[in-house]
Every structure is written in C-alpha cells, then in structure tokens.
Amino acid sequence: MTTEPRLAFVHIDDVPWTEVIAQLHGESRVSVHEKFLEWNAKRMVVLGRYDPNVVIERHGHASDHLVYVLSGELRVGDRSCPPGTLIALEVGAKFGPLVAGANGALLFEVWMGDPRPVPGDKEEYHALLEKKGIGRLPNPPFTKPATAPRHPDDGKDLYS
C-alpha cells in the first residue's frame, strides 16, 4: 500500500518559541529560541531567534544544514553574515563560533536529516566564553514535537 505525498502548511503564529540554549551575560539571561516548524526523520525546519551577543560553539551537525539570515547579524568565525546571507553546511563540516550581533539575529534553518549537533573543540569554546565573561547555563529542557524522532541522547546537553 502506498501513501500519498504529504502537503502541509504551518504558520509561525501557531508554533510557540522554545528556549534551547541559555547563557548568562553579566546579570542577563541570553538565549537561543526556536520555533519547530517541521521536525521528522527526513528534515527539521526552524525559525531561530538569537538574543544579542549570544555565543554558540564551533560545531557541525549529523546532516546537511542550511541557515538563512533574515534579520540582525550573525558572525560565523571571522565572517559577518548580514541579512540575505545563506550558509550551507554539509554533513562533516563545522562552523563557528556563531556570535549574534548587538541586535540579535533571526534565522531560517533547515536540516536534511538528523539535526543533532556534532560539537567542536570544547576547551576552545569554554576559553572563549571565559574571555567574554559569559557564563554557560545548562541547555533548557524541552519537549520535542510528537513527529520528531527519538534518540538515546535526547535531553543530554551535547554542547556542554
């Protein structure tokens, strides 16, 4: 028995923001929030909101990953990525650190398969946070959408 290909529509107003990464910048909590627009075994599609100056470690993913900067600015290593920039990260490649601009960044992201991160150099990341006076907080716990695949490392902080 074959099934018909799926046609789906999702509006961003129907999807809540989910905090996925948190840091302490002085007395302020700074975060990455995502709207999981689609998450299944074939792909994950999110609208990502990076608070001003949030810093994400150099990393890759277990699948190809596309990032399109909608607004604000994202710095990827030494490269400034203003609105209109597409970042294409093939599986096995790493990018970063990722640093949001002074006004934060709004990103449209697509993973073609397993979106789990493949962390880079932990010592380098922790040294960067220390240099910037940033306290790393544990990743906030969240519930995956029902359509998302389950993995043994769900709930584990792969960025720690």
Would you mind describing this structure in some detail?
The chain is mainly beta. 7% of the residues lie in helices and 46% in strands. The radius of gyration is 16 Å and the shape is globular. Strands 1, 2, 3, 4, 6, 7, 8, 9 and 11 form a nine-stranded antiparallel sheet that branches. It has a two-stranded antiparallel sheet with strand order 5-10. It has one helix spanning 122-132, and strands spanning 18-25, 28-39, 44-50, 55-56, 59-61, 64-76, 79-81, 86-89, 98-112, 117-119, 134-136. A hairpin with a 4-residue loop joins strand 2 and strand 3.
What is this structure's SSE topology?
Layout: E1 18-25, E2 28-39, E3 44-50, E4 55-56, E5 59-61, E6 64-76, E7 79-81, E8 86-89, E9 98-112, E10 117-119, H1 122-132, E11 134-136
The number of helical elements comes to: 1
**Percent helix among the residues?**
under 10%
DSSP strand (E) fraction? Answer: over 45%
Looking at the structure, what is the overall shape? globular
**What is the number of strand segments?**
11
Question: Short description, anyone?
Answer:
This protein is 7% helix and 46% strand. The chain is built from 1 helix and 11 strands.
Relevant terms:
single chain, 160 residues, two-stranded antiparallel ribbon, 46% strand
